[in-house]
Design a protein that fits this description.
By secondary structure, the protein is α+β, with helices and mostly antiparallel strands. The chain folds into two domains: 89 residues; 64 residues, no CATH class. 60% of the residues lie in helices and 13% in strands. The protein is built from two helices and five strands, in the order αβββαββ. Strands 1, 2, 3, 4 and 5 form a five-stranded mixed β-sheet that branches. The protein is rod-shaped. Keywords: Coiled coil.
């Protein structure tokens, strides 16, 4: 019977050794899987850090763009106010040189200032001139007031009359 016990003990020992090897292989596989998952977790953590950095950069860019937009809107408002002020300061009375404006033809605004007492008026007169170009409009006003010592003639600017 001791041989039988010995055989049972050896079988039991062999089974234990085989079980231990199987469990060691499984443990090594599980450790490898755990290492791979830990590595992936670190990669995803790095992606999270990168995303946080990019979000911060994007927020800074957005803040800078919002400041630029506010500055541009302020400049637009300033320019709009200046344009309204300029439109309000246009003279309400114009002198015509010698032509009536053609329908669809351009009108030009030319200011003429009387410089000395020999001029027939004092101050500034505003002329509305129908001409094809600014040079032609200024030339026609210069023909009407040829004296360079008595009159100062400004450059011609496009004239847009308000709709009524």
């Amino acid at each position: 019977m001791s041989a039988l016990w010995m055989l049972a003990a050896l079988a039991s020992l062999g089974t234990g050794v085989m079980g231990e090897r199987i469990l060691r292989i499984r443990a090594r596989r599980q450790s490898d899987k755990l290492a791979a998952l830990t590595e992936r977790l670190e990669i995803y953590a790095n992606y999270g850090k990168l995303a946080a950095v990019r979000r911060a950069e994007t927020e800074e860019t957005l803040t800078a763009l919002e400041r630029d937009i506010a500055a541009a809107e302020s400049e637009i408002q300033t320019l709009r106010s200046a344009a309204e002020d300029a439109a309000a300061s246009l003279p309400a009375e114009f002198h015509c040189v010698d032509r009536v404006a053609r329908s669809g033809g351009p009108l030009w605004f030319v200011a003429v200032e009387a410089l000395d007492a020999s001029a027939p008026w004092s101050g500034v007169r505003h002329y509305a001139v129908a001409a094809d170009s600014a040079e032609e409009a200024r030339k026609r006003v210069t023909e009407r007031h040829p004296s360079t010592t008595a009159f100062a003639i400004a450059a011609a600017a496009p004239l847009v009359l308000p709709e009524r």
